Amino acid sequence: MSKFATKIKNWIGFDVVDEDEESRAPEVEEEVQELEPITAREEKRRERKPANKVVEFPAQSARSKMIIYRPVSYEDTMSIIGNLKSRKPIILNMENIDIDVAQRILDFMSGACSAMGGDIRKISAKIFAVVPADYEIVGNSDGYKE
After folding, report:
1. Which domains, and CATH codes, for the chain?
2. Using the 8-state DSSP alphabet, how is residue 77 labeled?
3. Which residues lie below 8 Å from residue 35, measured CB to CB, with a gap of 6+?
């Protein structure tokens, strides 16, 4: 083989050895590495591996729940607010309650919605939708008009 072709092949990374050079080359002992057992390698890999990077969100059921309330008195307001804190949408039906009590409940609910970033909308004369911050009330009208 020509010297030029040999140089090109050596430069590229092919080990081309002439038969004459083979007889002149000293014998080199190859270094043998001892391999670690598989279990030891796995343990080291686990040590280097960072902790679980998955961030878990609070568990939610497969189906969202909407709660319908028919308050009887002003004391029912705290349980309604509790569900709003739990991020559950609420339909508030005040057809069977005195107007003064209904007004107090709505005032309190309005303040709670505002504090939590939620929304309250009138659906009909005495029915309201109360939703937490991560819900949006969508409809083709601006709400009920008397």
Report:
1. 67-131 (3.30.110.150)
2. H
3. none
